[in-house]
Amino acid sequence: MSGFDGAAAFDGEAAFDALRRAMAENSEEPEGPARNARAEQLLAEAEKLNIPLAVIEALGHQLKVYNYSSEKAKMFVPFARLLRMWDERPEDFDEYETHSLHWVFKWMTAGMLDQPHIPLAAMEKWLGEMEHRYRLAGHSERAVRSAEYSVAAHIGDRARAERAYAAWLAADRDAMADCHACELHEQGWWQVRQGRDAEALDLWAPVLEGEFTCAHEPHAALASSLAPLLRLGRLEEARANHLRGFRLVRSMESMRGAYADHVEFCALSGNEARGLELLAERPAYFTDDGHPRSRLDFMAVVALLMDRLVELGPADRPVPGPSGRSWTAAELAAHAREEALALAARFDERNGTSHVGERARARMAQRPLVDRLPLGVRAVRTVAAPPPAPPAPVLAQEPDLPALIAEARRLSDTLQPNAVEAWAAVARAAQDVELDPRDRAEIADHEAMDRGPEGTGLFEQAAELYAQAGDPGEALAAHARAAYVRALAGEIDEALTAVAGPYDEVLALYAADGTGVRQTASVVMSRARILMRQVQEAGEGGEGEILSEAERAVREVLALVEGRTEDDVRLAARVAEAQAMLAELAARTGDVESAAELFTWAAVGFVEAGLPWFAVEYEARLAGLLHHLGDLAGTERALRAALEHGGPHLEPVGRAQLRLQLAEVVGGRGLAEEAAEHALEAAHWADEAGEGRTLGAWARHQLGGYLVRLGRWAEAAEVLESALPDLRPETHGDGVVVQTQWWLGDCLSELGEHREAAERRLQAAEIARHWPEQHDHATLAHLAAESLGAAGLPAEADRAYARAGGLWREIGNVHGLIRSLRARAWLALRAEDGADAARELMAQAVQECEAALGDVGSDEEARARLVGELGHTHRQFGDLLARSVSEDAEDDSIRAVLEEALTQVAESIVLFASLGGDALDARTGAELAAGWLAADLSRPEEAAARARAVLAAYGSDGSPSGDDTTGRDRRDADGGTEPTRRDAGDATAQARRAEAAQMLALMEEQMEEQQD
Fold this sequence. Notes:
1012 residues, 71% helix, two-stranded antiparallel ribbon, mainly alpha
């Protein structure tokens, strides 16, 4: 910040210049009280200068920072003073300040609307004053009608608002009209008020797409678009606009209303936890009272969010709220509602209508528009409390016990997923009823299944009851199931001993027609499962005898069941499961092709049996094997089938894993859009499964990468920033951490956040510094240097480039070394008296490149790259020399430097020409640069020749001529691409031809003048 303090050693114009610099610096500071206080200080200093324009500019600066802050109510005092100064001495205002004074009339109108203590009559009087002054100044009435519309819309006078709206759009745009972005935002907002969401979004499209922007746009339009997009079901756009828009408004204190829209979006899209995070980021928004209307908006959506949290329960959960005390959701809901309604009542009392209160109540009464819209950023799912059971209707009849038993038996006979729950319902209904042994056996059997390894005792109880019911085969099956759950608990030997008896007995019983195939298959399958557990416990490969015994047991199941399944779902499932077991055994012996084929049969068997959910596990295994075999199409089919067949029965963690695998496969095919959708779903389901810090972080890392690939920088930055705190080298690998930082640095660079980009790139470089291979370290150091330079930190950038250059030299990457030297040269040129250092660094780049060319040997491709590198270096050397010329230098000195610059550029032309079509654009660009230098040196004939050379290079229609029709894209010295021209419609060819034609015309005109 400037050290200007008014008591400076400067006076007069020098002091005024220092004041202006200080105001410009203060304008760049973050919005907020500190900036406002500095503006007040600068006004006091301006008053000491005895220069009216200094006071006018300081008042304008103060007014501006007040407007872009939470202290908007302070605007009226400096504006009133400015208006008085204008009325008394308009000649003290220069052209810019005259424009500014009239411009901020609009701010005053909006400011009055936002302050309920200002009477409506005063606003109407102000509208008349504004119209009168605009007419005197010769301005269109467009801004006046826009202001009138705002007043009418605010108080709910729809008829007047419609008239003013139409007059606003009909009036001519002039210098006083709001920018296109602001006008379109307000017009769209009116459409939303009329229930025309789609029309609003059409109006906002140029703003949302970045065609029209300003200090507060597209920030505000992105926020306003969220609820309409949700209502229209355009959920992906809503998600993207939230991530993009929140990033823009997060640090802008003056945008509390837009911030409230983002909180509202969270409440309406099932992202209540993220809504709480947003509230926690801005505690001052609860109490800042300089802008009552945005405080009303904010407190209304706080009430909406808190009501939602109370509904989800528990009501006493702690939430962020106004400082000074702790808050529960229920307490904050009541407080926010009371504050919002009190503010609305003040506005309505001022306006003489009930419009503001009605809108506030409607906003607080909204219901969620979607259950949950995954955002990709991590947030804990807010779990809904179970709804209270409704009272039973008087005439309603509960299903009787026989019906419950029949339904449970149907579900278990067909292996439906909810069979266990159905038998639990039977157990509850039969608490006071004496059931026969068969029914009690099935209840115990299914409860044991539900308990897993703790169900051994219940299985044994079920076995006794089956025996009492006269079903010895099912009794033996229950004993076998008890043995299997012991194996699940790790007691393999005990399980094998326990299953031996039932196995022998059931085979003997089956041979004597004492039981059926189903019961016998159940026992034989349980024994096979135990042996498969033994294989798994034996580790990779297993022992030969163990594998052989397991395979014999599995084949025994197939021998027993195949051909006898008929319509028996259970038996069909035994065949499919046995195929899957054989697949597992084949995979363990390294027979991947057979394993894949067997898993395919198993999955098909389950699907054909009407049990697709059982196929999911095997389709997932199949996908892994096919990926190993390089069959990516088959991998993708298997993963899609698993997701389809799992349907609602998939556990969240399984769904996350399948989605993430599918994202990687389709992403590998270049389908980044679809890959991003799958990674987004994976992140959502990982969070649902409580795996947000592990699997969820990996999914967010992947999602961020796909968004980077799509160029969706703001969304990617939000996702990657959300992933970083959970990414750990020991869990995810330090390569993932570095890649995430790298991608994030790229995003921040694209978003213009260069200092933050440098920080991320340096953090990644510090990790990569410890890797054996140093290319990534060098690249990250180089990128960090670029960001530091763009952030206006030349000294830090030079050090980073020097570090990168040293690394490039160490790993033998001459191209990186030369790029770093060239970058340092340009940085040096920006410094005071840095021309000599810049020249030295560029000369060093030339020397390094020439030395590398001498050592390249017979590698023609490497030689061509180095020739191109040298060409770019000579070209940049010429540009640097030309820009180093001081306007204050003697003519002869200037001419000498330009001659030297032309020599460098001419050398680059020769080098590019030697590469033929590969360097066509580079050559023609250098030709044009040389032509302009020749023109500056008063040599129009030479400049004209250069222009003709460019026109000839592209042909009469813009297409390459001669040898330039061949070639390929090549990467230039600074990491970009320098493509050759292959079609007449190419933009570069057209631009070069247009510039060459312009140059030729100018030079021919000069030559004619010389002849005359």
